[in-house]
Amino acid sequence: MTRTRIMLADDHTILVEAFRKLLEPHYDVVGAVADGRALLDIAPQLNPEVIILDIGMPLMNGLEAGLRLKELMPMVKLVILTMNDDPDLAVEAMRSGISAYLLKNSAAEELLRAIQMALKGETYVTPLIAQGMQHSFIRNPEATGLSKVLTPRQREVVQLLAEGKSMKEAASILKIKERTVAFHKYRAMEELNVTTSAELVQFAIKSKILVK
User: Fold this and answer.
1) DSSP for 168-212?
2) Distance in Å from the first CA to the final CA of the chain
3) Between the chain's N and C termini, which has fewer beta carbons within 10 Å?
4) Structural domain range at position 71
């Protein structure tokens, strides 16, 4: 019997190995990556059925990378496993089509249950933040989508610059010219009506483009 293929995406090596040991008796763990850009590059080649990913990853956050993957791999199930217990972020993730949202201090059995539910087409949210998500939804029944005013490329540039990358470093990572990075940065600043790099970083944090 063919086992379900699972991929891991997290920049904490020790945790990745722990998750691998937990999952390997039940599933075929086909690979692991440490940042969102690597996830986008490698997942289509490995063709996993489920991806377990953190949100707060470098170069591209896990939610952004996951949603782009859904366009390339519509059938893949995304299970968020993160330290971030912000209910607003969890609500945004579930609204975006994520199958499950768990915290890294959730019980191991909870992760296995969430994967099983995702494979059945169901959704799962850890009880650790479910109540907070209800309050968040009541406060904001419609998604604000602050980051949605930016193009995908602008969001990439904003995250890299907010992480402290120079324009030259961002250009190298994105494989574009430095002046193109500058163009996207200043277009983003115009769209957001901000005038300084510090304000741009504040926006990245507020809108969850940069997630710790």
Assistant:
1) HHHHHHHTS-HHHHHHHHHHHHHHHT--SHHHHHHHHHHTTSS--
2) 39
3) N
4) 5-139
Contact 46, 134 (CB under 8 A): no
User: What is d(CA 86, CA 45) in angstroms, rounded to the nearest whole number?
Assistant: 32
Q: Beta-strand (E) ranges in the chain? A: 5-9, 28-33, 50-53, 77-82, 100-103, 124-125
| Amino acid residing at 35 | D
Sheet holding 124-125, edge to edge: 28-33, 5-9, 50-53, 77-82, 100-103, 124-125
In this predicted model, what pLDDT tens digit does every residue of 90-105 receive, in sequence order?
888 888 889 999 999 8
pTM reported for the whole predicted model = 0.77
Reported confidence tier of residue 141, pLDDT bands at 50, 70, 90: very low
**6 CB-near residues (< 8 Å, 6+ apart):** 23, 27, 28, 29, 30, 48, 49, 50, 51, 52, 115
> Is the CB of residue 159 less than 8 Å from the CB of residue 210?
yes
Residue 211 lies in a domain: no
Instruction: Look at residue 75 in the predicted model and tell me its pLDDT.
Output: 94
CATH number of the domain bearing residue 46: 3.40.50.2300
Residues 18 and 53 in one domain: yes
